[in-house]
Amino acid sequence: MARILAFDYGIKRTGLAVTDPLQIIASPLETVATAHLWDFLHDYMQKEEVEAFVVGYPLKADGSPTDSTAAIDAFIRELKKRYPSVQVHLVDEYGSSKDAVRAMIAGGTKQKYRRRKENIDRMAATLLLQEFLQQRL
């Protein structure tokens, strides 16, 4: 089976997470400067078979768009254009960064590690991917 790759897309950085080939376990992969995301993705797709993308989609609690929704819409359009054979799934990312910090605390992660935003971005992508996997059951 192919992997599923998840994105916690941001203007500056994008957190990435990936499943194992059996699509059972979600693991943090990398945090990439968004300016270099397409290069990273191109290289990754050359090495690994990816069946689907999961993108954290930001909406406010009332369902209205956030300030970053338009940028993520543009990212999704480009993702579909570059990789038309790969399915794209959206997962509500409302509160994902806060959830990531809570998960890191619960897991005993040291405060110094939690302060680095790139670590939070990777964990947020992992939580988005776990949510997607659970929804499929």
In words, what does this structure look like?
By secondary structure, the chain is α/β, with parallel strands linked by helices. Helices cover 44% and strands 26% of the residues. The chain has five helices and five strands. The protein has helices at residues 37-47, 69-82, 96-106, 111-114, 117-136, and strands at residues 3-8, 13-19, 26-33, 50-57, 87-92. A five-stranded mixed sheet has the order 3-2-1-4-5, with helices on both faces. It starts with a strand and ends with a helix.
Number of helices: 5
Which term fits the overall shape?
A: globular
Strand content: 25-35%
Oligomer: single chain
Could you say which structural class the secondary elements and strand pairing correspond to?
alpha/beta
Cα end-to-end separation:
17 Å
Question: Care to count the β-strands?
Answer: 5
